[in-house]
Backbone:
């Protein structure tokens, strides 16, 4: 399927979406973790200048091995197609991309440079050193054919949004859009999905809440637990028995159906 999404420049562009659930079920993802966000935030204290570089179509800057391309095949009205680059939705894509980012930026990582998937952050206390780091990062990108999406990059800022948080020399707080989302969230949740969505959003910012967050949120957490009662057992039994008792549909077809192939089958 194809959907539209904001590409960060304010323009909505078409994006191909392929369901890789079957492929992912057979895939063993590499054991390469993403940097813990809590650790990243702790590294940013006391710095004044920030820049973020976002890579254009992130995962697609990694080429697929020729022998693995057939695994990404998808069917359309125009025929079968396979990807020559790593696609979003593949189980091993995040770990593979993170491993490549770390490998290319290895000499700079830990020296006021952080790579989190396709978002690279550099932070410095002095302007001259900050510009120097930016030049080094861009040189690495150029050498390894990594291309930033410059309309989404932010250079030499004293306040910046990164990974859902607003970062300044004074400290860190949740990004304004997250605060607004929580502020306007309905106060009455209607089902388990809505409860999980709300808890997921709030939990992302729990470090900014009082120490009793777990106690305050427990009533909602309890709502997400699976509860099986006698009523559910009886329902399953009834549905199973109805299918078992089923014999023959009295009028499966009301008309004669003729199946035509789009091509002739040659006689043997």
Residues:
């Amino acid at each position: 399927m194809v959907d539209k999404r904001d590409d960060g420049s304010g323009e909505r562009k078409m994006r191909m979406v392929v369901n890789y659930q079957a492929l992912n079920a057979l895939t063993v993802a590499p054991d390469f973790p993403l940097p813990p966000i809590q650790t990243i935030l702790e590294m940013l204290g006391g710095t004044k200048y920030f820049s973020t570089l976002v890579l254009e179509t992130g995962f697609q800057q990694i080429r697929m091995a020729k022998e693995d391309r057939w695994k990404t095949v998808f069917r359309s009205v125009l025929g079968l197609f396979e990807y020559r680059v790593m696609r979003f939705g593949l189980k091993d894509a995040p770990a593979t991309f993170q491993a490549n980012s770390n490998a290319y930026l290895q000499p700079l990582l830990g020296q006021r440079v952080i790579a989190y998937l396709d978002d690279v952050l550099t932070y410095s206390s002095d302007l001259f050193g900050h510009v120097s780091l930016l030049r080094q990062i861009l040189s690495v990108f150029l050498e390894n054919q990594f291309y930033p999406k410059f309309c989404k990059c932010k250079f030499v800022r004293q306040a910046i949004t990164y990974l859902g948080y607003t970062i300044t020399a004074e400290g860190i707080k949740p990004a304004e859009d997250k605060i607004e989302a929580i502020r306007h969230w309905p106060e009455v949740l209607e089902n388990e999905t809505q409860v999980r969505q709300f808890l997921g959003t709030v939990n992302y910012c729990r470090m900014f809440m009082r120490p009793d967050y777990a106690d305050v949120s427990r009533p909602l957490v309890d709502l997400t637990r699976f509860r099986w009662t006698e009523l559910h057992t009886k329902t399953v039994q009834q549905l199973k028995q109805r299918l078992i008792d089923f014999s023959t549909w009295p009028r499966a077809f009301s008309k004669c159906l003729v199946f035509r192939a789009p091509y002739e089958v040659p006689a043997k």
User: Anything to note?
Assistant: The mean pLDDT is 81. The two ends are 39 Å apart (CA to CA). The chain has two domains: 2-174, 175-226.
